[in-house]
Protein backbone atom coordinates (compact mmCIF):
# COMPACT_ATOMS: atom_id res chain seq x y z
CA UNK A 1 0.00 0.00 0.00
CA UNK A 2 1.80 3.09 -1.30
CA UNK A 3 0.51 5.50 1.33
CA UNK A 4 2.43 3.53 3.98
CA UNK A 5 5.73 3.67 2.07
CA UNK A 6 8.43 5.27 4.24
CA UNK A 7 5.97 5.91 7.06
CA UNK A 8 8.87 5.00 9.35
CA UNK A 9 12.56 4.67 8.56
CA UNK A 10 15.11 2.03 9.49
CA UNK A 11 17.71 4.37 10.96
CA UNK A 12 19.22 7.81 10.68
CA UNK A 13 22.30 6.72 12.63
CA UNK A 14 25.59 7.92 11.21
CA UNK A 15 28.03 5.02 11.18
CA UNK A 16 30.60 3.71 8.72
CA UNK A 17 28.73 0.58 7.73
CA UNK A 18 25.64 2.57 6.74
CA UNK A 19 27.44 5.01 4.48
CA UNK A 20 27.61 2.40 1.73
CA UNK A 21 25.28 -0.43 2.67
CA UNK A 22 21.97 1.25 3.43
CA UNK A 23 19.60 2.44 0.73
CA UNK A 24 18.90 6.18 1.08
CA UNK A 25 15.20 5.31 0.99
CA UNK A 26 15.61 3.41 4.25
CA UNK A 27 16.63 6.66 5.92
CA UNK A 28 13.36 8.29 4.87
CA UNK A 29 10.62 8.65 7.45
CA UNK A 30 7.51 10.69 6.70
CA UNK A 31 6.58 10.55 10.38
CA UNK A 32 10.05 11.27 11.76
CA UNK A 33 9.98 7.90 13.54
CA UNK A 34 12.77 5.34 13.10
CA UNK A 35 12.72 1.68 14.05
CA UNK A 36 16.05 1.72 15.86
CA UNK A 37 15.00 4.70 17.99
CA UNK A 38 12.02 3.01 19.66
CA UNK A 39 12.54 3.32 23.40
CA UNK A 40 13.64 0.01 24.89
CA UNK A 41 14.08 -1.63 21.48
CA UNK A 42 17.05 -3.00 19.60
CA UNK A 43 19.26 -0.16 18.42
CA UNK A 44 21.84 0.04 15.69
CA UNK A 45 24.04 2.22 17.89
CA UNK A 46 24.42 -0.66 20.35
CA UNK A 47 26.05 -2.89 17.75
CA UNK A 48 29.81 -3.01 17.80
CA UNK A 49 31.47 -6.07 16.38
CA UNK A 50 28.70 -7.57 14.29
CA UNK A 51 27.78 -6.96 10.68
CA UNK A 52 25.29 -4.13 10.95
CA UNK A 53 24.06 -4.90 7.42
CA UNK A 54 22.47 -8.06 8.78
CA UNK A 55 20.61 -5.93 11.30
CA UNK A 56 19.51 -3.48 8.60
CA UNK A 57 18.12 -6.24 6.40
CA UNK A 58 16.24 -7.77 9.32
CA UNK A 59 14.90 -4.32 10.24
CA UNK A 60 13.63 -3.74 6.69
CA UNK A 61 11.87 -7.09 6.68
CA UNK A 62 10.36 -6.34 10.10
CA UNK A 63 8.94 -3.00 8.89
CA UNK A 64 7.42 -4.60 5.82
CA UNK A 65 5.76 -7.32 7.88
CA UNK A 66 4.65 -4.77 10.47
CA UNK A 67 2.84 -2.71 7.81
CA UNK A 68 1.10 -5.81 6.46
CA UNK A 69 0.05 -6.83 9.97
CA UNK A 70 -1.23 -3.35 10.73
CA UNK A 71 -3.44 -3.40 7.62
CA UNK A 72 -4.76 -6.85 8.51
CA UNK A 73 -5.45 -6.01 12.15
CA UNK A 74 -7.02 -2.57 11.66
CA UNK A 75 -9.40 -4.03 9.07
CA UNK A 76 -10.26 -6.88 11.44
CA UNK A 77 -10.98 -4.30 14.15
CA UNK A 78 -13.38 -2.41 11.90
CA UNK A 79 -14.98 -5.58 10.55
CA UNK A 80 -16.38 -6.36 13.95
CA UNK A 81 -19.97 -6.93 14.98
CA UNK A 82 -20.34 -3.16 15.23
CA UNK A 83 -20.23 -2.68 11.45
CA UNK A 84 -21.97 -4.19 8.47
CA UNK A 85 -21.45 -3.80 4.69
CA UNK A 86 -23.14 -0.72 3.26
CA UNK A 87 -23.16 -1.93 -0.37
CA UNK A 88 -23.51 -5.17 -2.27
CA UNK A 89 -20.92 -5.99 -4.92
CA UNK A 90 -21.89 -5.58 -8.58
CA UNK A 91 -20.81 -8.01 -11.29
CA UNK A 92 -22.00 -7.74 -14.86
CA UNK A 93 -22.25 -5.40 -17.84
CA UNK A 94 -22.69 -1.65 -17.89
CA UNK A 95 -24.38 -0.94 -21.20
CA UNK A 96 -26.69 -3.42 -22.88
CA UNK A 97 -25.85 -5.56 -25.90
CA UNK A 98 -29.32 -5.35 -27.52
CA UNK A 99 -29.65 -2.85 -30.37
CA UNK A 100 -32.09 -2.01 -33.19
CA UNK A 101 -30.76 0.78 -35.37
CA UNK A 102 -27.71 3.01 -35.92
CA UNK A 103 -27.29 6.37 -34.24
CA UNK A 104 -26.25 8.66 -37.06
CA UNK A 105 -26.83 12.07 -35.50
CA UNK A 106 -23.90 11.98 -33.06
CA UNK A 107 -21.05 14.44 -32.87
CA UNK A 108 -17.37 13.59 -33.34
CA UNK A 109 -16.69 12.16 -29.88
CA UNK A 110 -19.26 9.69 -28.62
CA UNK A 111 -19.37 7.12 -25.89
CA UNK A 112 -20.45 6.15 -22.40
CA UNK A 113 -20.25 8.36 -19.32
CA UNK A 114 -20.30 7.06 -15.77
CA UNK A 115 -21.44 9.53 -13.14
CA UNK A 116 -20.19 7.95 -9.91
CA UNK A 117 -21.73 8.40 -6.52
CA UNK A 118 -19.35 9.69 -3.85
CA UNK A 119 -18.27 6.42 -2.18
CA UNK A 120 -14.93 6.20 -0.42
CA UNK A 121 -13.53 2.70 -0.82
CA UNK A 122 -15.42 1.67 -3.96
CA UNK A 123 -13.69 0.65 -7.20
CA UNK A 124 -14.89 -0.24 -10.69
CA UNK A 125 -12.74 -2.94 -12.29
CA UNK A 126 -13.22 -3.19 -16.06
CA UNK A 127 -12.13 -6.58 -17.38
CA UNK A 128 -13.61 -6.46 -20.88
CA UNK A 129 -14.90 -3.75 -23.18
CA UNK A 130 -17.37 -4.27 -25.99
CA UNK A 131 -18.28 -2.23 -29.06
CA UNK A 132 -21.28 -2.34 -31.39
CA UNK A 133 -20.57 -0.11 -34.41
CA UNK A 134 -22.14 0.16 -37.83
CA UNK A 135 -18.94 -0.44 -39.74
CA UNK A 136 -15.83 -2.59 -39.58
CA UNK A 137 -12.96 -0.77 -37.93
CA UNK A 138 -9.99 -0.97 -35.57
CA UNK A 139 -11.04 1.22 -32.69
CA UNK A 140 -9.23 3.00 -29.90
CA UNK A 141 -11.36 3.88 -26.87
CA UNK A 142 -10.07 6.73 -24.73
CA UNK A 143 -10.84 6.84 -21.02
CA UNK A 144 -11.14 10.28 -19.40
CA UNK A 145 -11.94 11.55 -15.92
CA UNK A 146 -13.31 14.73 -14.40
CA UNK A 147 -14.21 15.94 -10.94
CA UNK A 148 -17.63 17.32 -10.17
CA UNK A 149 -19.83 19.18 -12.62
CA UNK A 150 -17.91 21.29 -15.13
CA UNK A 151 -14.48 20.10 -13.99
CA UNK A 152 -11.47 19.82 -16.29
CA UNK A 153 -11.19 16.66 -18.41
CA UNK A 154 -8.03 14.55 -18.10
CA UNK A 155 -7.05 11.32 -19.84
CA UNK A 156 -6.74 8.21 -17.67
CA UNK A 157 -6.05 5.46 -20.19
CA UNK A 158 -6.48 4.35 -23.78
CA UNK A 159 -7.66 0.92 -24.94
CA UNK A 160 -6.35 0.36 -28.44
CA UNK A 161 -6.86 -2.26 -31.10
CA UNK A 162 -10.51 -3.21 -30.64
CA UNK A 163 -11.59 -4.84 -33.94
CA UNK A 164 -15.25 -4.36 -34.81
CA UNK A 165 -17.58 -6.10 -37.25
CA UNK A 166 -20.46 -4.08 -38.69
CA UNK A 167 -23.59 -4.32 -36.52
CA UNK A 168 -22.21 -7.17 -34.37
CA UNK A 169 -20.93 -6.88 -30.81
CA UNK A 170 -17.16 -7.20 -30.50
CA UNK A 171 -15.46 -7.79 -27.15
CA UNK A 172 -11.85 -7.17 -26.13
CA UNK A 173 -10.36 -8.80 -23.04
CA UNK A 174 -8.06 -6.40 -21.22
CA UNK A 175 -4.64 -7.87 -20.45
CA UNK A 176 -4.55 -5.74 -17.32
CA UNK A 177 -7.95 -4.90 -15.83
CA UNK A 178 -8.64 -1.18 -15.63
CA UNK A 179 -9.28 -0.17 -12.01
CA UNK A 180 -11.18 3.08 -11.57
CA UNK A 181 -11.60 4.36 -8.00
CA UNK A 182 -14.71 6.18 -6.84
CA UNK A 183 -12.65 8.42 -4.56
CA UNK A 184 -9.11 9.77 -4.47
CA UNK A 185 -6.98 12.44 -2.81
CA UNK A 186 -9.00 15.27 -4.42
CA UNK A 187 -12.05 14.23 -2.35
CA UNK A 188 -14.60 15.12 -5.03
CA UNK A 189 -17.23 13.16 -6.99
CA UNK A 190 -15.63 11.53 -10.04
CA UNK A 191 -16.95 10.99 -13.55
CA UNK A 192 -15.40 8.65 -16.14
CA UNK A 193 -15.88 8.74 -19.92
CA UNK A 194 -15.24 5.99 -22.49
CA UNK A 195 -15.20 7.63 -25.93
CA UNK A 196 -14.09 7.06 -29.53
CA UNK A 197 -13.91 9.19 -32.65
CA UNK A 198 -16.97 8.73 -34.89
CA UNK A 199 -15.20 10.54 -37.73
CA UNK A 200 -12.69 7.69 -37.85
CA UNK A 201 -14.64 4.70 -36.60
CA UNK A 202 -18.16 5.42 -37.79
CA UNK A 203 -21.44 5.58 -35.89
CA UNK A 204 -22.61 3.16 -33.20
CA UNK A 205 -25.73 1.12 -32.71
CA UNK A 206 -28.40 2.18 -30.22
CA UNK A 207 -27.68 -0.06 -27.24
CA UNK A 208 -29.08 1.30 -24.01
CA UNK A 209 -27.13 2.43 -20.96
CA UNK A 210 -27.85 0.39 -17.83
CA UNK A 211 -27.16 -3.26 -17.23
CA UNK A 212 -30.29 -5.30 -18.07
CA UNK A 213 -29.17 -7.65 -15.32
CA UNK A 214 -32.18 -8.29 -13.11
CA UNK A 215 -31.42 -7.74 -9.46
CA UNK A 216 -28.02 -6.28 -10.31
CA UNK A 217 -29.67 -3.20 -11.80
CA UNK A 218 -30.58 -1.74 -8.41
CA UNK A 219 -27.08 -2.54 -7.13
CA UNK A 220 -25.56 -0.70 -10.10
CA UNK A 221 -27.74 2.35 -9.41
CA UNK A 222 -26.47 2.46 -5.84
CA UNK A 223 -22.98 3.05 -7.26
CA UNK A 224 -23.38 5.14 -10.41
CA UNK A 225 -25.52 6.55 -13.20
CA UNK A 226 -24.51 5.60 -16.78
CA UNK A 227 -25.49 7.57 -19.87
CA UNK A 228 -24.45 8.50 -23.37
CA UNK A 229 -22.40 11.52 -24.41
CA UNK A 230 -21.82 13.09 -27.79
CA UNK A 231 -19.63 16.20 -28.08
CA UNK A 232 -17.57 18.08 -30.63
CA UNK A 233 -14.78 18.76 -28.15
CA UNK A 234 -13.40 16.42 -25.48
CA UNK A 235 -13.43 19.23 -22.90
CA UNK A 236 -17.22 19.48 -23.29
CA UNK A 237 -17.88 15.96 -21.97
CA UNK A 238 -18.47 17.03 -18.37
CA UNK A 239 -22.17 17.73 -18.68
CA UNK A 240 -25.26 16.61 -16.82
CA UNK A 241 -27.04 16.02 -20.13
CA UNK A 242 -26.66 12.26 -20.59
CA UNK A 243 -28.70 10.29 -23.11
CA UNK A 244 -30.37 6.93 -22.55
CA UNK A 245 -27.92 5.28 -24.97
CA UNK A 246 -24.50 3.80 -24.31
CA UNK A 247 -23.50 4.73 -27.89
CA UNK A 248 -22.24 1.30 -28.86
CA UNK A 249 -20.14 0.68 -25.75
CA UNK A 250 -20.60 -1.86 -22.99
CA UNK A 251 -18.25 -2.65 -20.11
CA UNK A 252 -17.91 -6.00 -18.41
CA UNK A 253 -16.52 -5.95 -14.90
CA UNK A 254 -17.13 -5.60 -11.20
CA UNK A 255 -17.81 -2.91 -8.64
CA UNK A 256 -16.82 -3.63 -5.07
CA UNK A 257 -16.66 -1.58 -1.92
CA UNK A 258 -13.60 -2.55 0.07
CA UNK A 259 -12.55 -1.03 3.36
CA UNK A 260 -8.90 -1.79 2.52
CA UNK A 261 -8.49 1.65 0.97
CA UNK A 262 -9.66 3.18 4.25
CA UNK A 263 -6.13 2.70 5.61
CA UNK A 264 -4.88 5.58 3.48
CA UNK A 265 -7.87 7.73 4.45
CA UNK A 266 -7.20 6.89 8.09
CA UNK A 267 -3.56 7.90 7.68
CA UNK A 268 -4.64 11.28 6.32
CA UNK A 269 -6.49 12.14 9.55
CA UNK A 270 -3.97 10.57 11.93
CA UNK A 271 -2.58 13.81 13.34
CA UNK A 272 -0.75 12.12 16.23
CA UNK A 273 1.20 9.60 14.11
CA UNK A 274 -0.54 6.74 15.90
CA UNK A 275 -0.21 4.52 12.83
CA UNK A 276 3.52 5.17 12.55
CA UNK A 277 4.02 4.47 16.26
CA UNK A 278 2.03 1.24 15.96
CA UNK A 279 4.11 0.04 13.01
CA UNK A 280 7.33 0.92 14.84
CA UNK A 281 6.27 -1.09 17.90
CA UNK A 282 5.23 -4.05 15.79
CA UNK A 283 8.53 -3.82 13.90
CA UNK A 284 10.50 -4.02 17.15
CA UNK A 285 8.37 -6.96 18.31
CA UNK A 286 9.15 -8.84 15.09
CA UNK A 287 12.83 -7.87 15.22
CA UNK A 288 13.16 -9.27 18.74
CA UNK A 289 11.31 -12.44 17.76
CA UNK A 290 13.71 -12.91 14.84
CA UNK A 291 16.68 -12.42 17.15
CA UNK A 292 15.29 -14.77 19.78
CA UNK A 293 14.76 -17.45 17.17
CA UNK A 294 18.25 -17.11 15.75
CA UNK A 295 20.09 -18.07 18.93
CA UNK A 296 22.51 -15.15 18.43
CA UNK A 297 21.28 -12.99 21.27
CA UNK A 298 24.74 -12.14 22.59
CA UNK A 299 25.90 -11.28 19.09
CA UNK A 300 23.42 -8.39 19.00
CA UNK A 301 23.02 -7.37 22.62
CA UNK A 302 24.14 -8.21 26.12
CA UNK A 303 20.55 -8.05 27.35
CA UNK A 304 19.13 -11.23 28.86
CA UNK A 305 16.64 -13.44 27.08
CA UNK A 306 14.03 -12.76 29.78
CA UNK A 307 14.41 -9.01 29.34
CA UNK A 308 14.06 -9.26 25.57
CA UNK A 309 10.99 -11.46 25.90
CA UNK A 310 9.43 -8.92 28.22
CA UNK A 311 10.12 -6.08 25.76
CA UNK A 312 8.66 -8.13 22.95
CA UNK A 313 5.41 -8.57 24.91
CA UNK A 314 5.42 -4.86 25.77
CA UNK A 315 5.75 -3.85 22.11
CA UNK A 316 2.97 -6.25 21.13
CA UNK A 317 0.62 -4.65 23.66
CA UNK A 318 1.56 -1.13 22.51
CA UNK A 319 0.69 -2.13 18.94
CA UNK A 320 -2.61 -3.77 19.92
CA UNK A 321 -3.62 -0.77 22.06
CA UNK A 322 -3.09 1.64 19.17
CA UNK A 323 -5.01 -0.46 16.68
CA UNK A 324 -7.93 -0.68 19.10
CA UNK A 325 -7.82 3.05 19.82
CA UNK A 326 -7.77 3.94 16.12
CA UNK A 327 -10.76 1.71 15.37
CA UNK A 328 -12.76 3.38 18.15
CA UNK A 329 -11.57 7.00 18.03
CA UNK A 330 -11.66 7.20 14.22
CA UNK A 331 -15.03 5.65 13.34
CA UNK A 332 -15.52 4.09 9.95
CA UNK A 333 -17.75 6.99 8.86
CA UNK A 334 -14.65 9.22 8.80
CA UNK A 335 -12.55 6.99 6.56
CA UNK A 336 -14.79 4.82 4.39
CA UNK A 337 -18.36 4.51 3.13
CA UNK A 338 -18.17 0.72 2.70
CA UNK A 339 -19.28 -0.14 6.22
CA UNK A 340 -21.98 1.35 8.40
CA UNK A 341 -22.08 1.38 12.19
CA UNK A 342 -24.65 -0.77 13.95
CA UNK A 343 -24.24 0.70 17.41
CA UNK A 344 -22.80 3.76 19.14
CA UNK A 345 -19.52 3.80 21.00
CA UNK A 346 -17.52 6.41 22.87
CA UNK A 347 -13.77 6.54 23.48
CA UNK A 348 -12.31 8.97 26.03
CA UNK A 349 -8.66 7.86 26.25
CA UNK A 350 -5.87 9.65 24.42
CA UNK A 351 -3.04 7.56 23.03
CA UNK A 352 0.00 8.16 20.88
Walkthrough of the structure:
The model is unreliable at 344-352 (pLDDT under 50). By secondary structure, the chain is α+β, with helices and mostly antiparallel strands. The longest helix has 27 residues, at 52-78. Strand 5 and strand 6 form a beta hairpin. It is built from 9 helices and 11 strands. The strands form 3 sheets. It has a 5-stranded antiparallel beta sheet with strand order 6-5-8-3-9. A 4-stranded antiparallel beta sheet has the order 2-10-4-7. The chain has a two-stranded antiparallel ribbon with strand order 1-11.
Essential attributes:
352 residues, alpha+beta, five-stranded antiparallel beta sheet, four-stranded antiparallel beta sheet, 9 helices, 30% helix, 25% strand, disordered C terminus
> Which residue ranges are poorly predicted, with pLDDT under 50 across at least 5 consecutive positions?
344-352
Order of helices and strands: HHEEEEEEEEHHEEHHHHHE
Anisotropy-based shape: elongated
Q: What proportion strand?
A: 25-35%
CA radius of gyration is 26 Å
Helix fraction bin: 25-40%
Number of helices: 9
User: How are strands sequenced across the largest beta sheet?
Assistant: 6-5-8-3-9
The rounded distance between the terminal residues' Cα atoms is 22 Å
What's the pLDDT, averaged over the residues? 87
What class, by secondary structure content? Answer: alpha+beta
Main sheet, how many strands, which sense, barrel? 5 strands, antiparallel
- The overall strand count is 11
